[in-house]
User: What shape does this take?
Amino acid sequence: MPITEVEKIWMDGELVDWRDAKIHVLSHALHYGSGVFEGIRAYETERGAAVWHLDEHLKRLFRSAKLYHMDIPYSIEAIGDAIREVIRANDLKACYIRPVVYRGYGEMGVNPLDAPINVFIAVWPWGAYLGEHALENGVSIKISSWRRNSQNALPSSAKATGQYINGVLAKMESVMAGYDEAVLLNDHGYITDGSGENLFIVRDRTVTTPPIQAGCLDGITRSSVITIARDLGYEVTEENLVRTDLYNADECFFTGTAAEITPVREVDHRPVGEGTRGPITKELQGAFFAATKGETEKYADWLTYMND
Assistant: This one.
């Protein structure tokens, strides 16, 4: 999805013009993928722009950095303040937020420990990741021939830049084969997730998602949907799933900050359920988007308002 340019990007403590936000070509992260990041959304509400699960995203950013021995030169509070600053500077009512911590220019080679740590935060308007139509009509997915990284090769609990090349391979394969998205299996043949989304199925009114131990990211939207589904009275389980569980599901959907809640209508040319968005998926979407707009008191603390 194309990026819409705005005015400013926050880089290492300063607001710089969008087109002047540059890094050196010999930055370590460019060569070795040595960076960590978050994808966050701010939603438009009656009280102005509000960031969805800001604290949880920033805590995960710092956990990811810790796994890669990256000492972020700012506190969580300072990064939170910087996000507020850059949203206000660009006068955005709703946006996607991308903080990136990366190893910059100064060292080359596989040992990155002496490379400087830099931080930038970009924000821009961004609609539905898989397309607005997909929120209602669903997407087609392919079980990828590429396997998800082993937990003992690259830790799935870290949201690291270099790790996403695994998902890039799967995404390209699926798009070139005529599908919208991919699903990856682990080395044991269990479902992990999409190229950039967590996955859920519904069968006999039970909502099931793969456990974190299968190799999927501990998604913040994933956790929110589990809470919402249980609050709506559905049984939610975390269990290993195989590809036939997707074929035989009554409903299937992706979750993620970018994907939000996107139905899956077809897996490997097999319709899921009736081949349309299912009623439970639709109900979860309604509850989710009400929460993002600040319309549900129960979930009020999931939002951080920029005008407060």
